[in-house]
Every structure is written in structure tokens, then in C-alpha cells.
Amino acid sequence: MRSAADGLSLRAPTPVLAALLALLAAATARAVDLTPREQAGKRVYLTGESPTGGEIVVKLGRDGSTLPGTAAPCGSCHGADGQGRPEGGVRPSAVIWSELAKPYGHTHPGGRKHPPFTGASLGRALRDGLDPAGNPLDVSMPRYALSDEDLGSLTAYLLRLEEDLDPGISATSLRIGTVLPTAGALADVGQAMRGVLEGFFEALDRRGGVHGRKVELVVAGYDSDGATGVDAARKLLREGRVLALVSGFFPAGEEEVLALLAADRTPLVGPFGLFAPPGEPANPWVFRPLGGVREQARALSAFAAREPGLAGKRVAVVHAADAPFVEAARAAGAELRRRGGGTAELLRVDGGPAGDAGLAARLRAIDPGAVIVIAGDGALASVARDLAAARLSPALLAPGTLSSRDAAQASAAYRGAIYLAFPSAPGDETPSAAKELARLRERSGSAPGHRASQVSAFVDATVLVEGLRRAGRALSREKLVESLEALHDFETGLAPPIGFGPDRRLGAPGAHIVKVEGKPPGFRPAGNFVALEPD
């Protein structure tokens, strides 16, 4: 679906390039091709590095203490868009040229007045801390020791800054990318998600888009039988000129793809996957509306620690040997201790539960009141059979995204209670959102059985569009990140309320717990959403 531009965004506190860089204001919505000199100036502005190989030194405060230029580049306070980022109660002024060169000059809140900036007076402000009238700038504004060549390059770039938009932004459109399998064993999942995303943005465009801009979806496809999606993502970032990425599915290459996004400073809302990296803050450019297996495992431990009949009993955590499963099992054990539920016994099964002939004996020796199974498809049913053979009937718990498909088989083989955790549940859904998803699923023409991935795609797109709307018409990657960080208790219609923050990138940390029961077996809610604290 639609288009482009170019730029970067950095952060760091230095409230004063304001008075002197007050030279670039509201973006014009047209990407520009920068000359080599302007490119050099952009490097000075964003990184504080000298493109000529010289040295840039920052002088701070009244005592003139010094730091390397990289410690306080202009863009760290004034923003990649030159509009000024509030920091510590200080609002750096805009440094776009249309603002700096206002013909009637400037009157600052403290009463300081001066005529418009020129190239010469800008240089004096940067080097000596004096405005065009010779008044000292605010003490928070650093002074810079830099060569005439670097100063000339910086000035040249400031003259163009407000035209130098981030990639994917034009006057009429916003270009958003996604990485999906379009061939191979995972192609059905990719097609299901693509259909929802395309239909979502087409419907949005019919309603006028975002602040009058249409949203163009660029799909970077790959063959999941022979590729991980990393090369497709790299090519998209290099050639696609996208503002941000949304959703996507690249389970075998997620770590590398996210590293590419961080290096390119490209925001991503999503992706769909089983595992998210532990801990907050995570990659600052990646926002995950919903948790994965790790969060579901933690929620199951929290449930076991508080549920009557389970609280205080031994818990065994049966887990596969792959690193993500090991990490999820450890997180489950830590959550159990945090909730006062005692100690979990972690049972690693190298060949998977079905390949571990001694698992039943190990479980009998522990005699647990609850068993949490964190392994691949079929593991829940296998452990259920082992427990039944050992004449044990503890509560059996598992992340729903791993075990929902074999829940019926497990239920048929087992008399004990079975519980699953899911990041979202029917109770989260509003009638209008559920109806819209049903329409998009029908439109996609995808194979049945991919509702979870399509819910994820719908939620991701909804969150991204809300971030774009809040960022406003004068859009940049940095503003998009800031607007997403400001989301709190945002309702998507298909998930628990989503909220992020400067150090929080998981929107709904927690899971719903459901009980598997009945013939044929179905899911019944087993309590409220289990909310998790950052770990």
C-alpha cells in the first residue's frame, strides 16, 4: 500500500542549542537529497562527530568543563527534527531555519530579545554562547569548539533540516513495512497476517488515513524453508524507505532482525512470536503489545501460587532444552518464589517430554501438586499420559500458544485439572472489533486456524496507528516512539489494555488463565487477567 523520506534520531540531554540552533521548524513533508556538505553537517548535528577527522569539544556551564562532542550532540536536546525535546524541566528551542531566521527576531520567556540569526551569529552562538544581540544564552546551552569547516557544514544542514524528513514520510502518505513468510512451510501464517494488515490499512485509508496521509504497507516476503527473514528485513530497511515496521513473523531470525532495527533506529510494533527477550527496558525501538511464552509461564506460576488447592504445593516445571524454553522455565520458578508459592523443581527434558522415558519416575519422586509444561507441540498430551500412567493427578498447566492444539488430546488422557494461559481472551474483545477482525479474516482468504496470529496483527496495527495519530502531522520516528511511550490503558478491542513507558516496551504484561473441561473439551475462564510486574 504507500511512500518515503530520510533521517535518524538520537537522544541525550543538553538544553541549549536552542538559542543558537533555533533554526529549523515544522517539517514540510517532502524528503530531500542532501549534498555531501549537508550530509557532513547532519553527522555533526546528530552524533557530535567531526566528518573531517578533527575534534569537536563541548564546554558546559559557567566553569566551562569539557566533554567530547559525542557526549552532547545538538540532536540530543533539539531532536532529530530540530523542534526541541523537553528534558528535566527545560524546553530547548527549535533550531529549524524558518524559526531561527524569523524576520522580527525573538523574545524569550525571561525577557531576552535579539534579532534573527544569520550564519555568522549562529556560529557565535555555538562557539561563544552569545545570541545575535550579544546577550549570553541560557547556561544550559553548551558551547562548541569546532573547526570552521565543521561549523560551515552544520550551518548548511540546519538550513535544510526541516525538509530532511525521516524515511517513509511524504506529504500524502506514510510507508510502513512488515516482514512475513510468503513461501515455505510458514506461508499460511504469513498470508493470514498479510491479509489482515492489508485490509486494516485499506479500511483506514478509506476513512482518510492518518492526518490526511494514506498508509502504504510494504511487505518484505521470504521463503521460510530456506531463509530466516533477516535478508528480507535488511533489504526493506535499505531500499524500502519505511517509517516503521508493524507486526511480522520471522521466528528463526528475530534476534538479528531486531538488532538491524536498533542500528537503523526504525520503530517496530510487534512482531508475532512465541518468545520475547526477558527484562525491561528491552530494545528501545521495539514495542510488543502482548506477551509471549515467558509471560504466560510467569502468569501460570502466579496462578498456582494463589489458587485454592494449589497454593503451597510443590510445583514441577517440565521444559524443553532450547534456550528460550529454559529461560521461560526459570522465569516461572522466579515468579513462584516472588508470589510466596515456594520453590519450583525444574525438569529439563532434552529430547522433549515424549522422548524422556524417565520423566514419569522423576515426577513420581517429586509428587507435585502442579506441573507446568513449557515445551513444543504435543508436549502437554505426552506429559498427561505419563502422569496418568504413574497414577498421579496434579494440576497440569501450560502456555496456550504452545499447547492449545493438543489440549483436547491431553484432556482425553487425563483426569486432573488442565489450565492454559493466553495473552488475550474473548472477554477482551468488543463486538465491533471482533466483527471487523472477522471481516478481515474472510477477506484474507487464509486457511483456518490462524486466528491468534491475526489477532496479533490487528492489535499491532491498531497500536501503531494510535501512535501515529498522537505524534501529529509533523511526524518523525522519534516522535512516534515518544507517542507510543505515552500510551496508557489503550483499548484495541481485541486485547487487554495496552500501556508503554520510557522503560517499558511490553504493553500488557500478563495472561488470562482458562480451564480445559467438558466433552468435547472447551475453555472456561479461571479468574481475572493475571497482571505481572517487571522482572
Regions with pLDDT < 50 over 5+ consecutive residues? 1-31
Total tally of structural domains: 3
So how many helices? 18
Shape: elongated
Give your account of this protein's structure.
There is one protein chain. This protein is an alpha/beta fold. It has 18 helices and 19 strands. Strands 11, 12, 13, 14, 15, 17, 18 and 19 form an eight-stranded mixed sheet that branches. Strands 7-6-8-9-10-16 form a six-stranded parallel sheet, with helices on both faces. Helix 8 packs parallel to helix 9, helix 12 packs across helix 13 and helix 13 packs parallel to helix 15. The N terminus is likely disordered.
Explain the layout of strands and helices.
Blueprint: H1 17-21, H2 36-47, E1 57-60, E2 65-68, H3 74-78, H4 97-100, E3 106-107, E4 113-114, H5 119-128, E5 143-145, H6 148-160, E6 173-183, H7 187-206, E7 214-223, H8 230-239, E8 244-246, H9 254-264, E9 268-269, E10 286-290, H10 293-306, E11 315-320, H11 323-338, E12 344-349, H12 359-366, E13 370-374, H13 379-389, E14 395-399, H14 400-403, H15 407-413, E15 418-422, H16 431-444, H17 451-471, H18 477-485, E16 506-508, E17 510-517, E18 522-525, E19 530-531
Parallel strand pairs: 6-7, 6-8, 8-9, 9-10, 10-16, 11-12, 11-13, 13-14, 14-15
Antiparallel strand pairs: 1-2, 1-5, 3-4, 15-17, 17-18, 17-19
Helix pairs in contact: 2-6, 7-16, 7-17, 8-9, 10-11, 12-13, 13-15, 17-18
